[in-house]
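Readers of this paper often ask what the protein records in our data store actually look like. Such a record has a labelled line for the sequence and another for the backbone structure tokens. Nothing more is needed to write down the fold, since each code stands for a local backbone conformation. The record that follows is passed on verbatim for readers who wish to inspect the format.
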Amino acid sequence: MRGPRGRVLPLLLVGLALGGCASWLPGAGKKRPRVEKVVTPPTPPATASAPAAAGVVVAPLADGDGVADRIVAVVNNDVITLTELREQVLYYKVEAHGEEVPDDDRLAHQLLDRLIESRLQLQEAEREKVTVEEAELSDEIVSRMKKLNLTTELDFEDAVKKQGLTLDQVKKRLREQLMVAKVIRRKVAFRVSVTEQEVDRYLQENREKLETGLTYHARHILVVPEGERTDAEWATARETAAAVFARLKAGADFAEVAKEVSRDGTAKDGGDLGTLKKGELADEIESQILSLAPGQISEPFRTGLGYHIVKLESRETLEGEGLTRLRQQVRDVLFREKYQARLDAWLGEIKKRAIIEVRI
């Protein structure tokens, strides 16, 4: 990580920019979204951005009439200024780290909608009389400081000033973020639950995909026929493989025997195939491995390469601790899906009853 002050803008200011809303499982999704990633909420999953107001044409950010600032949107009794909107464009570009971004006018249009959404959520928090204690605000500042490798509040304030902000401005934005997080928990998260029956149904409907994602660890010995691969040479290879199998059944260490006799590229590693998922090996070999119990060794079997002997070291299953972990992952996925649906509905409700005027 670079020096802490060099990271303040992307880590701190972008995190404050809008000041509001916010495994491996089938359907669970790294390409960075264009605008949706601007806000990183202090609590549960990310919000969906509402659609831009229909028919709005975004004027250039530069003010041709020389006006230093003006109102670009009215949200109930609050206003959003051109200066605020310009800041969001700047924050987003910094966070993009050189990635391709929309032109300023298009980006401003998209980010204005996020600003409106954020303002509506803050108004809802105020309507619900949500408060933030000084101790909560202090904890949030400490959390930000840790991310920036800053040790004192004076260092934090100095870093903030270098970005053209004051500590009071930052505290105000952090307080607003915490207020919004609380109202989202109250209106959304606390109203979402996942039942065990829903988890069971998900597991049943997606069992095949889930099993495909399970891993296994195996070892392998390959005995190949020499020379022209005549029938006699194949017979000799079969006898050699049978003798190797007999040694293994008598208790010889599989890894040591593999180093000694195997002609596979894994021989130097004791035949270790590493951790694999279903489908990563040829089916004729994988099917033999997955038919074994952990610790079991297969009898020699033939493919076009030669005679193989495999050992299953371990395998994940949808049982025991593995099933317990998987159920929690499924529960998390289902919660996020329900959370997002409830969040979208709530945002739609507060937008529907709001008076919003866009002036760009």
Remarks:
- Residues 1-14, 17-62 have pLDDT under 50 and may be disordered.
- The chain has two domains: 4-195+336-358, 215-315.
